[in-house]
Design goal:
Low-confidence stretches: 1-11, 14-18
Structural class: alpha/beta
CATH topology of one domain: Glycerol-3-phosphate (1)-acyltransferase
CATH class of one domain: Alpha Beta
CATH superfamily of one domain: Glycerol-3-phosphate (1)-acyltransferase
Radius of gyration: 22 Å
Helix content: 40-55%
Distance between the termini: 44 Å
Number of strands: 9
Number of helices: 16
Mean pLDDT: 92
Length: 406
């Protein structure tokens, strides 16, 4: 299932209602144009700046020489991205683990749908976990709002990403959704490539993860037959991602406070770039991916709906339950829950040392928030938001396991 097998020679076109759809503006670059695009990329000053930021300067010319010898996406992922992600895992995590591998069938292609914690690494680290086990990597959905520079667009499309067009007018949005849906079905059914997509646009700022109904509806635009049959066609597999520490936690808290002060507050592109850098380079502790069974059997059980809105809500709920049930809960999550609700319910789940370390971590993160005139009341508010972020995965897991009772 590598990029170079004959079936990948086809163009990114698909026949739909007798009209060909041209995916060339959103699909990953084909191997035919790979080398040309790479030659252009390595000349970009922004790309050089990013390399110098993430690796020792003396290694950059060596890497660029290596990049120019690569002619396809498979080799790029294996020879360059694999070692780079291993380096990142080694320096910024306490280890990346993958569970639920028994649910993965090598003869199928999947739409991996996950909760969304980190802008760049959710999909990258999942692909790293796959590369380690010789499982084919997935194509990755990435919002064009993050593609701030042309060279970033080129880099992600060389690395098997496809573009989700956002911030368009209503008519363009409908057209973009139709094309995106057709492309995902095309990937699974024709290209025989798995895809990764987050369960919602943007990260869940409070770490309470819920699938957007609009996303489910988009996935069911293309395909054959009724709504549920179209979803079965793309083998949805929910995957729960758990980070012990979220390096962006204090930036999210800062955003909550700024929105509280001014409801019209909007992040800048610079804020997004800083979030991407922080997520990439700062410490994340343990990272766990839990695969869960694809939901086709559950979809058969719920049957067909006359109303797509209700169908999308029901499918979203199936995905949410799978993800919530499968979170890895770390000591910091138990501690945050007990602190937030002023209880000792999970006291046996952590040691005194873990309690002290976590409380010190929370205060350190809050100290990083540099805003003018933070009052004592605002500090309390920010602490509560931070604790909520770390308590929510446990809250959602409890609700799912205990059937709505916390």
């Amino acid at each position: 299932m590598t990029e170079r097998s004959p079936r990948h020679k086809q163009k990114d076109h698909i026949m739909s209602h007798h009209e060909p759809i041209d995916f060339s503006d959103i699909a990953p670059y084909s191997d035919e144009v790979f080398h040309n695009k790479m030659e252009q990329l390595v000349k970009e000053p922004g790309f050089h700046h990013a390399l110098n930021y993430t690796m020792p300067k003396e290694d950059v010319p060596v890497l660029i020489d290596e990049l120019l010898k690569i002619n396809n996406k498979h080799d790029f992922q294996f020879k360059v991205m694999f070692p780079f992600l291993e380096m990142l895992a080694k320096t910024t995590t306490s280890g990346i683990t993958l569970g639920g591998i028994k649910y993965y069938n090598p003869s199928l292609c999947y739409t991996f749908i996950t909760n969304h914690r980190d802008i760049v690494l959710d999909a990258s680290f999942l692909n790293l976990a796959f590369l380690r086990r010789n499982i084919p990597t997935s194509e990755v959905a990435i919002g064009n709002n993050l593609l701030i520079y042309d060279w970033i667009t080129d880099l992600v499309r060389l690395n098997k990403s496809f573009i989700v067009k956002r911030n368009t007018g209503l008519r363009e949005a409908l057209e973009a959704a139709r094309k995106l849906s057709a492309y995902i079905h095309h990937c699974i059914l024709d290209k025989h490539e798995s895809v990764w997509i987050a369960q919602r646009e943007g990260r869940a700022k409070d770490s309470s993860d819920h699938t957007q109904e609009a996303l489910i509806k988009m996935l069911a635009i293309a395909g054959e037959g009724p709504f549920i049959e179209k979803l079965k066609e793309i083998n949805l597999m929910p995957v729960a991602i758990s980070y012990e520490y979220d390096p962006n936690d204090y930036l999210k808290v800062r955003e909550f406070l700024l929105k509280r002060r001014d409801p019209n507050f909007k992040k800048t592109q610079r804020d997004d770039l800083f979030s991407m850098e922080t997520g990439l380079m700062q410490f994340k502790g343990k990272v766990h991916f839990q695969l869960t069974p694809r939901i086709n059997t559950r979809l058969d059980q719920i049957g067909d709906f006359t109303d797509n809105q209700r169908a999308a809500k029901c499918v979203g709920s199936i995905i949410d339950q799978a993800i919530h049930r499968s979170y890895e809960i770390f000591p910091i999550n138990y501690i945050a829950y007990d602190q937030l609700y002023n209880t000792k319910r999970f006291r046996r789940k952590y040691t005194d040392q873990q309690l002290d370390e976590s409380l010190a971590y929370f205060e350190r993160q809050l100290d990083k928030i540099e805003l003018p005139d933070i009052t004592a009341e605002e500090r309390t508010y920010m602490r509560e938001i931070l604790l909520t972020m770390y308590a929510n995965p446990l809250r959602n897991k409890l609700k799912t396991i205990l059937g709505g009772i916390e």
